[in-house]
Specification:
Helix 2 runs antiparallel to helix 4, helix 7 runs antiparallel to helix 8 and helix 9 crosses helix 10. The chain has 15 helices and no strands. Helices cover about 70% and strands about 0% of the residues. The longest helix has about 55 residues. By secondary structure, it is an all-alpha fold. It starts with a helix and ends in an 11-residue tail after the last helix. The C terminus is likely disordered.
């Protein structure tokens, strides 16, 4: 396998990987997710048509150069979807800003022009190009049609469309990179902007070369050199763009994984609380086999990996519902329960924040026995978290202590004094 073939295979694989990773967002119906996933899918198919297997499969249809036409049409679809994504992302900013107006104008123009461009390319391909020449005459599309005026029209249309769209993407991502606060995002956006700039350069080089060999066919002897130079510009541009798009996506993936890990850690605590207090959970826990312990793992996976929203949003919901349930338990638990839970934690040797976390876990486990008691004024309760950033790690500590709490806290559960008369 040549270096060129290896690069094509690498780019195709990365595009397919990006398509697969972003496919769930497209399924959830997010417009931006659909646009970006569609762009990656179209580009992956276009790059596959550069491979021997792609050309062989399409070649079975018996139409010379058809893989090239399909490759160019898919590239137009991909760049149009990418421009749609960029326009949607930055339309959330001040719509009166000049760069937003320009992007929106180009997007509207490109959306209308994409179908016309594809129809024009198809018309020139089938009606004007001499397709009697085959791969035997030249391994390159340009080499097979050198000297034909229709070649300038065909590639001129294609390069003008893709080059203009790539220039808009490069401008927007370059501007966003300068404003990005997070280093990983700034790095990724810079790589994407440079990649799109190289694609603009590729379009200019190809247009200049095709024009030159049409006016002076003798220059076609340099075709092989030109093909190699422009191909490597194209490879570099796409690799930078793909790797740049992976950088922010990797950060987002890491954030999702952290959220899922936190959800798993909080699940048992959350489940016990929302099952004990009616009306707390927005979406009730999974109850396969009636919630039997044998199905605990399956129920947890269904709750944690549900596709109703992102893991980060579900994590926020878990925290809110745990705290809502805690407040309801405070209205039902014995007034001295937290002091007794704290003393028990200290008796077991826990100190400082560790004692606070264990005491909160013991309080929650004990207070659940009073979940059906009449509600009154909230009793004394202490928690070390005071905002969402600290709430998640703190509740994870509490949840660990909650899972480990066993029969040794039974004295805390027994002989609980009655509450005073409820005040509502």
């Amino acid at each position: 396998m040549s270096v060129s073939d290896a690069l094509v295979a690498l780019i195709t694989g990365l595009l397919l990987l990006q398509t697969a990773v972003r496919f769930p967002a497209a399924l959830r119906g997010r417009h931006r997710g659909r646009s970006l996933s569609g762009a990656f899918a179209a580009f992956a198919a276009a790059w596959w048509l550069r491979t021997d297997s792609g050309r062989f499969v399409i070649g079975q249809l018996g139409v010379h150069d058809l893989p090239t036409l399909l490759k160019h049409i898919l590239a137009i679809v991909g760049i149009c979807e990418l421009l749609t994504y960029v326009s949607d992302v930055y339309h959330d900013e001040d719509t009166t800003a000049r760069h937003i107006k320009i992007t929106s104008l180009v997007h509207r123009t490109a959306a209308r022009a994409s179908l016309a461009t594809m129809l024009c390319l198809s018309a020139v391909f089938f009606l004007a190009l001499d397709r009697s020449k085959t791969f035997v005459d030249s391994p390159y599309f340009v080499g097979r049609h050198v000297g034909e005026p229709a070649l300038i029209l065909y590639l001129g249309l294609f390069n003008a469309y893709t080059g203009a769209a790539a220039a808009v993407c490069a401008h927007q991502w370059g501007r966003a990179a300068r404003l990005a606060a997070r280093k990983s995002l700034r790095t990724g956006l810079t790589m994407m902007a440079v990649g799109m700039t190289l694609l603009v350069l590729y379009s200019l080089l190809r247009t200049a070369y095709v024009t030159a060999i049409t006016l002076h066919p003798a220059l076609a002897t340099a075709g092989s050199v030109q093909e190699h130079i422009t191909d490597y510009v194209l490879y570099a541009g796409f690799l930078l763009w793909i790797l740049g798009s992976i950088t922010p996506a990797t950060h987002a993936l890491a954030s999702r994984l952290r959220a899922i890990k936190a959800l798993v850690g909080l699940h048992r605590l959350w489940r016990d609380l929302v099952l004990a207090i009616d009306g707390i959970a927005l979406h009730p826990p999974s109850m396969i086999l009636g919630g039997h312990r044998a199905a605990a793992a399956i129920n947890m996976l269904r709750d944690v990996l549900a596709h109703d929203t992102t893991p980060q949003i579900r994590l926020g919901r878990y925290v809110t519902e745990i705290r809502d349930a805690t407040h309801e338990l405070r209205r039902r638990a014995p007034s001295d329960l937290f002091q007794r839970a704290r003393r028990l934690a200290e008796t077991e040797g826990h100190t400082a924040q560790d004692a606070d976390a264990v005491a909160e876990a013991y309080w929650l486990k004990s207070a659940l026995r009073a979940a059906d008691a009449p509600a009154g004024a909230p009793v004394a309760f202490h928690t070390a978290s005071d905002d969402f950033a600290s709430e998640v790690p703190w509740l994870q500590r509490v949840a660990r202590a909650y899972r480990q709490a066993g029969p040794h806290i039974r004295p805390l559960l027994e002989a609980q004094p009655p509450r005073s008369v409820p005040t509502a």
